[in-house]
Design brief:
With about 130 residues, the protein is mainly α. The chain has four helices and two strands; from the N terminus they run ββαααα. Helices cover about 45% and strands about 5% of the residues. The protein is rod-shaped and about 105 Å long.
């Protein structure tokens, strides 16, 4: 039995590569171009993307704390950007990593005062003046 096939389109005989089910010759149906295995699945490198809501919020919190330019802050921003573009189970993983990165970046920064702190300050002030 011959391992040659006849192309149904141009009727020429050709020899398909072993292990394939190719039925058309290479002129009628060229080989598929497969993407590089090392190519990133993200947007092309030349594309400028506007920051999303999560990235904007992370940047604002880091800037408010004065940690926006630290390497830990930059890691948190990068994770926020990746989480916005992720889907499925990757989102959960990235958000856990973002939470840890934010805790590390904001380590030692006192939290913003809230209404309970305001009430405590008023009470101390009223007790001191009495």
């Amino acid at each position: 039995m011959s391992d040659r096939k006849r192309c149904p389109e141009c009727k020429r005989q050709f020899r398909p590569p072993r292990g394939t089910r190719r039925s058309y010759c290479f002129d009628c149906r060229p080989s598929r171009v497969r993407p590089d295995s090392g190519a990133s699945s993200g947007p092309p490198t030349g594309v400028v993307r506007a920051p999303g809501e999560l990235e904007t919020a992370v940047r604002a919190e880091l800037e408010r704390a004065g940690r926006g330019e630290s390497w830990r802050g930059q890691v948190a921003v990068r994770l926020a950007r990746e989480a916005e573009g992720a889907s499925g189970a990757a989102v959960s993983t990235l958000l856990k990593q973002l939470e840890a990165a934010m805790a590390s970046a904001l380590d030692g920064v006192p939290p913003e005062p809230d209404f309970v702190d305001d009430l405590a300050e008023r009470r101390r002030a009223s007790m001191g003046s009495a």
